[in-house]
Amino acid sequence: MVTYITRRSIQAILVVIIITFLVFLVIRLLPGDPILIYLSSQDLQTLTEEQIEAVKAQFGLDKPLVVQYVSWIGSLFRGDLGISIFYSQKVSTLIGQRLPVTLFLGVIAFVFSHVFGVIAGTICALKRGKWIDTVVTVIANFGITVPSFWMGILLIYFFGLVLDWFPRFGYVSPVVDIIDFLHHAILPVICLAIFPIALVTRQTRSSILEVTRQDYIRTAWSKGLKEQTIIVKHMLKNGLIPIITLSGIGLSYILGGSVLIETVFNIPGMGRLGVEAIQSQDYPIVQAIVLLTAIMVVLVNFIVDITYGWLDPRIRYG
Q1: What gap in Å lies between CA 20 and CA 287, rounded to an integer?
Q2: E strand or H helix at 261
Q3: How many CB atoms lie within 10 A of CB 1?
Q4: What topology is assigned to 99-311 in CATH?
Q5: 286: number of Cβ within 10 Å
Q6: Are 154 and 194 in contact (CB under 8 A)?
Q7: What residues does each domain of the chain span?
Q8: Which tens digits make up the pLDDT trace of 74-120?
């Protein structure tokens, strides 16, 4: 087990290093000059070439790409994410303000989607062929195909404009007002969770149906064990292994979907900050957001792999 954890840790570190190189290179291949975009809000015509070069030197953009990359990596080891070109603030400060917003909504959507998806999928498997199985399966198929931003617009129209049940945009911190936070968070969380719910529901249904055909389940029934015991201790524990794999995919979708959802609902989260940074070609912010997102996804996948051993004792790591 220790050998496996060490090997997976090394692989995770290599993945993060490769991601840092790719995001650093790709963002600089985009057309346009971030300094010219930054200076466009001022009177660009009055600035001399020397003054423009001085601004580039201020943000370290006058150096060769290799030197910029090495300097950025060195700063990361010191805990310095750089200075935003557009906001002229520390990137760590900006992300520190936006990250809790994305995490609050993302964690709620993640937990809600998996709890609800597992329950719905289990019911469908146990009621296979019944009307509830058909209805939930159709809804799950719809949930997989529907675009989250389109669903967000529909929810805003019906529940925000027509019915006026929920706010159409904005965000309130749960630290300030938990009730108002929930009121604002319901529609965005639904949009973030709809795809993971559908995915987990379908996978849970398939996994439970496969588990019910196993010999140990028939043995448990023959022993006269309670239905609740069989479902929880035998069916779910063995049938949830594929669901654990999907949790990594679900988290990736939620983090990626926050970019669209936060834009649609005008939520000041990390996803919206990333969109603004890409539009202004704010290199330090884009690099930091992609790096943090990659670290979170890699960490979740690492935890998922380790969890296999607990869920299935037959799995042994060399």
Answers
A1: 7
A2: helix 241-264
A3: 10
A4: MetI-like fold (1.10.3720)
A5: 24
A6: no
A7: 2-77, 99-311
A8: 888 887 888 887 777 888 888 888 888 888 888 888 888 888 888 88
